[in-house]
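thread from #wetlab-drylab

HS: before we spend reagent money on co-crystallization trials with adenosine-5'-diphosphate, can we at least see a predicted complex? here's what I'd submit
DV: go for it
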Amino acid sequence: MKALEDVLNRAPRFTEAPSHKISEFFGANVFNEDAMRMFLTEEAWYAVRQATQHGERIDRKLADQVASGMKEWASSKGATHYTHWFQPLTGLSAEKHDAFFEPIGGGRSIERFDGSMLVQQEPDASSFPSGGIRNTFEARGYSAWDPTSPAFVIGRTLCIPTIFISYTGEALDYKMPLLRAIRAVDEAATAVCQWFDKDVTKVTCTLGWEQEYFLIDKALYYARPDLMMTGRALFGHIPAKGQQLEDHYFGSIPDRVRAFMREFETEALMLGIPVKTRHNEVAPNQFECAPVFEELNLAVDHNVLLMDIMEKVAQRHDFRVLLHEKPYAGVNGSGKHNNWSLATNTGVNLLKPAKTPKENIRFLTFFVNTIAAIHKNADVLRASIASAGNDHRLGANEAPPAIISAFIGEYLSGLLDGLAANIKGAMTPDRKTELKLDIGRIPPVMLDNTDRNRTSPFAFTGNKFEFRAVGSSANCAGPMTVLNTIVAAQLRSFAKEVEALVRKGTKRDEAILRVLRDLIVSSKDIRFEGNGYGDEWVKEAEKRGLSNIKDTPRALDVWSRKEVIQMFHELGVLSPVETEARHEIELHSYTLKLQIESRVVGDLAQNHIVPVAISYQNRLIENVRGLREVLGADKAKKATATQIGLIEEMSEHISTVMALVNEMIEARKKANNLENARDKAIAYCDKVKPYLEKIRYHADKLELLVDDEQWPLPKMRELLFTR
Ligand code: ADP
Ligand code: MG
């Protein structure tokens, strides 16, 4: 292949970081504390701080001051334009650039950026998905400044993180519900923390994501229309060598890849994204990047930014980044682990076991309530990670199954079960002392790397939970909004129960333990310590009554459940209208993805694969004819046997491919005629999707039969092993 030669002849390119010391350029392109101190008046700086930390409003006059300082700073970084940067439900980021420059008549101009431009902008929102909200209410949306995430400069543009809302106030993006969920969990968790420590006035969520991705050479990418259009290879025989040897995981990072990593990390660091870890992943050409954890809202922005930067920098290195959950059949797909915890303003990680009984009761409170929240809302959590891409990955022996469960390790399992058995009836003083000792004895670090269960979708890893089922291309805001909402709901109901017992005269510590005990017992079924990839677990989970929802449209059904709508409404995270809209958008997006995949499969089969197979078949036919001419019919019998066998075999596959493509088109037509979003998504899932696999099967057989020289698509081994 020509493309392949180009790749191999390419020398790695390096773009050096501004300094060997990261601390010297970390955050250089962020309007952070230091920059604000330098460019804002004391008054304006204080206003931003209050807004960031306590959600206070910034008045118009101060907004003008902030804008002016921000513009000065951005200009000093070379910015000429500004944009409101937001995260519409398409899962990418969006921006509309405006220049600071403004003509003022007489051929003169100034650079202008005031408070109103900072606070609000009206992008033309008509093409962002809104699930009908905009049709029902209002035709336009606007973006509004989110001061809790600092502005930054990319290239020549000042980017202002914003939320995106309709004129009637409905959230049209990922960020607004996330901010509301953060507030809900703050309120609920702070109230509980107050029992233990009056100094706790704020609880923040922390998120450390781990981003997996594949790299592919640009030339190969452009030679694969399926990768270009859908992000995954819809055809291709699985190569003899895949990831069996695990040589990639332990191997060193290739030079060309390292050059790419260094450059995108440098850009990320300048934007204040604390990327720290990089390594190869299990599949060939698969890699991972992880930062140090941060406050949730910021971490979400940083992940979206990083995905964006990675794609841009990859182009400079003649790579393309594949963020799809399952670009290649036969090897591992990509996920995005979401490490999550809660932290207080007093610097305590609420999911970290501590040294004293009192602190550990607090730890157990948050630990057990999180497990209970997962138990009660497993289906909502499942829905939060549902996507067409992730459907290929969940339960495919490489990623957690679609069954939600929680792994907490042997030690804590024993401890919880022991507690549950111990706290029964009235407690004698002796038993209370004993219990206190037990609780006090929880070792602060319980798990090391070897002890981790990598097959669990939701695992406790010593001082945080790791939600492993999130898809690699997902916006973390989706699952994080759900997780924090269900934990907030659980903490609220927990607090209510404890307060009720206290009102009846139970001492608070005892009341807490009593309610915790009930939760430990009632949520026991969600705890699973075994192999999440095994078939036994599927059976066992069914016995326990845990859901195993395998596809996206059905996973999303939970958004129509009354109690779910109610919970999100009560906590002020999503109004019933917003929930309905989101449900519809996700169904729609699922349908669109499958529709595109199905079209690409049809086109490639008809225009690339079948014609090439036929042309090769013709060569064989000519060969048979020629042999007969030269050798005579009798002698040629033996000499042409192989060719004739091949011709027949190919005919079989060619006609099957064509028949299947036609059937698929019919199935698609039927699905397209359905009005209801759910019906349509289900039709695509059940009736159209199976054809993708069937067609691929026969096309991949043809790939094995046709002369390699003639095959029109780069093969899987080239996609996987070229770098
Ligand atoms: P690994 O899972 O790769 O073995 P670690 O457990 O050290 O590595 O950390 C994984 C991720 O968890 C990192 O991104 C780290 O920043 C994040 N993390 C660590 N502590 C917390 C916390 N309290 N809250 C959220 N994320 C955390
Ligand atoms: Mg991890």
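DV: The two ends are 14 Å apart (CA to CA).
HS: ok that's useful, forwarding to the group
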